[in-house]
Amino acid sequence: MEKKFLLIGLDGASFSLLDILEQRGLLPHLAALRRQSAWGNLLSTIPPFTVPAWSSMMTGKGPGKHSVISFFEHPPEAYQCQSRGTFVNGSSVDGERLWETLSRAGRDVIVINFPMTYPPRPVKGCLITGMLTPYSATDFTYPPELAAELAGYQIDLQYSRQGDHFDIEAYPSGTRLIAELQDMALQRAQTGLRLMREQPWDLLAVVFTGPDRMCHFFWPDLVHPERADPEIVAASEEYFRNLDDRIGQLLEEVGPETMVMVVSDHGFGPAPAYRFNPNLWLEQQGWLRRRQSGRESGLRGQVLSRVYRQPALRRLIKNLLPRSWRGQVRQSAREDIEAAIDWPQTQAYFAPMSNYICGIEINRQGLKRSGCVPPEEVQPLREQIMRAALEIVNPLTGQRLVSQAQTREQVYQGPYVETFPDVILTLDPEVGCSPSLRGKAIIEAIETPRRPGDHRREGVWMLRGGPIRPGEVKEARHIEDVMPTILYFLDQELPDDLDGQIITTPVEQSYLAENTVRYRPATATERQGAFGQDSEEQELVEDRLRGLGYL
Description:
Elements: E1 5-10, H1 15-23, H2 28-36, E2 38-43, H3 50-59, H4 63-66, E3 72-73, E4 86-87, H5 98-104, E5 109-114, E6 125-129, E7 141-142, H6 174-198, E8 203-208, H7 210-223, H8 230-254, E9 259-263, E10 267-270, E11 274-276, H9 278-285, H10 292-309, H11 311-320, H12 323-333, H13 337-340, E12 348-354, E13 357-362, H14 375-389, E14 402-407, H15 408-411, E15 423-427, E16 431-433, E17 443-445, E18 453-456, E19 458-464, E20 471-472, E21 477-478, H16 482-489, E22 494-495, H17 509-514, E23 519-520, H18 535-547
Parallel strand pairs: 1-8, 1-9, 2-20, 2-21, 5-6, 5-8, 11-16, 22-23
Antiparallel strand pairs: 2-19, 3-4, 6-7, 9-19, 10-18, 11-17, 12-13, 13-15, 14-15
Helix pairs in contact: 6-7, 6-8, 7-8, 10-12
């Protein structure tokens, strides 16, 4: 009898939250699973967020090999000042996925809701795509006819409507949002249970995205319920009890003989209290030059931007102005950073990555449209920027701003490294980055964060069954380790180009001695790149991400 494996993804889960929820008695099934498992922190990618992290989990490779580091792809000559371009999707990922490797080996798989799986690719079994699937898509399953069996299935929260822009004031109440997350969790579990009962499987892999959304919108309420709105506390408790029940149903269905792994793509913590404006800092250092016209338009835009950031004033605009005028005000409030910079006179600029991970791009001569830094000066300039960055002190706290300054080659390995920002700065997690040139200072206090919770690198892993010894593993593992670990315990050969390593610390030595790791040449894959969406669909996807606070 061949081994089976259940993989449960809890998007955004961290032990800092799970511990609190377990102590409140809200997660009895997950608490029992942890007692039966080896467990520890799972370090996410740099930056720690959905798109690169799940891509690394399912390929066993870092971003330098699978290519995805952002929501967008850019031509190399472009200036990625505000994270705009063509949206990535599953076709952007270079590398064979875990379930594709198993399918090629003749094993049956069921894959549900993993981000970066749209458009769906053939597997031996079935697949339902996840985050970044266009909400109007009908081709979100493999085989295609499976979609007809999923009437009412919701892949993600969606409050943008056809022909209308996302409006934060139109977002539902917290209790309604939590109720919709509960419905999605129920759909995931019911779909998984039905499919595993109806067809053969060796790997069942399902992602619950709700924990991420709960942490983004309700982090203070979850960690400090005594200070929160009682209705939100009650709804949150009901959500996590029900999620735990769904997980319990899956665990009961697969039985004790099936190996189980729980993973998250990243962890969570409080939203940043401070904002770092790297472009302003680069301007002060003399590495960025602004156009004079950019300064003038920047003053007008700064006023509008600050007005539009205030919820009360934004509601006033909504109530008093016609819809067409509101759109014009919103557009004027948006900052066109690329137009404000004097590119032939600019050596370096901020390239957005995610929250407290800051990218600095060199304006390379011969690569960028208006590149001015000759190849022989790139490395000396990078070293100057890194040295200067390590000296920045947050005047509001007295603490150093940057904990680590590295070149992209020090952070990533692989053929796509040259497409990433030249310098990677890791900031204090209490500080977020902004591309704006409108700030009053290099570092500012954030009066009202976009969302109360934000990502951290420390996610979770638990592994139960077979030769696994239960208990905490102190040494953190990496998200790339998930794929090789599952392949090993399903008796599969490992591709020889993986970055991840098998988690062996909690494994019985006799098992390791009898089951040596076997490698094979990696299967060549062809990265297709993100396919073009029409402008309306791209705008709707962007609205959804903005609504979730990612843009």
